[in-house]
Design goal:
The chain is of the alpha/beta class. It has a single domain (8-263), classed as Purple Acid Phosphatase, chain A, domain 2 (4-Layer Sandwich), CATH 3.60.21.10. 25% of the residues lie in helices and 20% in strands. The protein is built from 8 helices and 13 strands. The strands form 2 sheets. The chain has a 7-stranded mixed beta sheet with strand order 1-2-13-3-4-5-6. Strands 7-8-9-10-12-11 form a 6-stranded mixed beta sheet, with helices on one face. The longest helix is centred in the middle third of the chain and has 23 residues, at 151-173. It is globular and about 50 Å long. Residues 1-18 and 267-277 have low confidence and may be disordered.
Length: 277
C-alpha cells in the first residue's frame, strides 16, 4: 500500500510511515472516516481494509460510513469490513443519521463486532482505551454559538453540550492511563482550515476540546471536514487528526487510513499530562 503518513513525532505518539517498524511499546492505530459507502461500493474497500490486519492493532472509524444512512448502505459497510480481524472502534456521522435508521444500522455494525461508541468506551488493553461520541456543531472561539435568545437556539446549543458532556463522562470512565478520543465533528479549528469559513460553525466546535484537555487524551481523531487540514493540537497540547478519507487521499493518493503509534507504556500511576514536543 502507498505510504500514507507524514513523518514526525509527538512526545506521546508518533505518526508513522506504513513500512516503518512499529515503535517499541506502542499501539498502532489506523484511522479513517467519511468513506460514504453506497450500493455501488460493494468490494471497493474490502481488500484495502483487510490490509489493516498486518499494519495496525486497531481500526478507528470516525463516522460517515454511509452516504444516506440507508440500511442497504450499512450492509455494504459490514461487508467491506468482513475481513478485518483487529478490533474496530467507530462513531457515527451526520450522514449515518440521515434516513432515520440509526438503531437498526447500529445493531448491524455491533453484530459484525464493531465497538460502536456513543458516549461509550472500549478498552483495547489495560493501558489503552477509547472514548467516542459523534460530537456536534456550534463554532469556534469568538464565533461560538451561545444559548441566548430563542428556544430553538438554546435547544441547538444544548445538543452540543450534551455531546460534550457525554465525551467528558466517557473519558472519565476510562480506567486506562492512555485515552484515545474518537469523534466525527472537529474539536479544534486548526483541522478544518481549508474549508470555506462560512461553514466552519457546521463542522464542529472547540467545546469538544475541553474534555480532551481536562482528561489529557493521548490523541483525538475526527472526520467530517473533507477539505480540512490533517493535524492540529488543542490548547492543552492534545494532538488532533482529521482523518477524512478525501483529505487523506489528497495528502497520500491511494490511502485508506492514517497510521499513528500511541505510546502504550504509561503506568496507571504515571502523570496523565502529556505535552506536545
Amino acid at each position: 500500500m502507498t505510504d500514507r503518513s507524514i513523518s514526525g513525532a509527538i512526545s506521546n505518539g508518533h505518526e508513522r510511515r506504513a513500512l516503518q517498524p512499529r515503535t517499541p511499546g506502542s499501539v498502532r492505530i489506523a484511522a479513517v472516516g467519511d468513506f460514504h459507502c453506497g450500493p455501488d461500493d460493494v468490494g471497493v474497500y474490502r481488500e484495502l481494509f483487510a490490509r489493516v490486519n498486518d499494519e495496525a492493532d486497531v481500526l478507528v472509524l470516525t463516522g460517515d460510513l454511509t452516504r444516506w444512512g440507508a440500511l442497504a448502505e450499512f450492509k455494504v459497510v459490514v461487508g467491506e469490513l468482513a475481513d478485518v480481524t483487529v478490533p474496530i472502534v467507530s462513531v457515527l456521522g451526520n450522514h449515518d443519521y440521515e434516513s432515520g435508521h440509526v438503531e437498526e444500522g447500529s445493531r448491524m455494525l455491533r453484530a459484525r463486532g464493531v465497538h460502536l461508541l456513543c458516549g461509550d468506551t472500549f478498552e483495547l488493553n489495560p493501558t489503552v482505551g477509547f472514548a467516542g461520541v459523534k460530537g456536534f456543531m456550534g463554532g469556534f472561539g469568538r464565533g461560538m454559538l451561545t444559548p441566548f435568545g430563542e428556544p430553538e437556539t438554546k435547544s441547538f446549543v444544548n445538543a452540543t453540550l450534551n455531546e460534550v458532556h457525554s465525551l467528558e463522562l466517557a473519558l472519565r470512565r476510562l480506567a486506562t492511563p492512555v485515552r484515545v478520543a474518537v469523534l466525527h465533528y472537529a474539536p479544534i479549528a486548526a483541522t478544518i482550515a481549508g474549508e470555506p469559513e462560512a461553514i466552519h460553525p457546521y463542522l464542529g466546535t472547540d467545546r469538544l476540546a475541553e474534555p480532551l484537555d481536562r482528561y489529557s487524551a493521548a490523541v483525538a481523531f475526527h472526520g467530517h471536514a473533507h477539505s480540512g487540514t490533517l493535524r492540529g493540537t488543542t490548547l492543552g497540547g492534545v494532538p488532533v487528526f482529521n482523518v477524512s478519507l478525501p483529505l487523506l487521499r489528497r495528502e497520500r493518493p491511494g490511502a485508506m487510513y492514517y497510521l499513528y503509534d500511541v505510546n502504550a507504556t504509561a503506568r496507571a500511576d504515571a502523570p496523565k499530562v502529556m505535552s506536545v514536543g
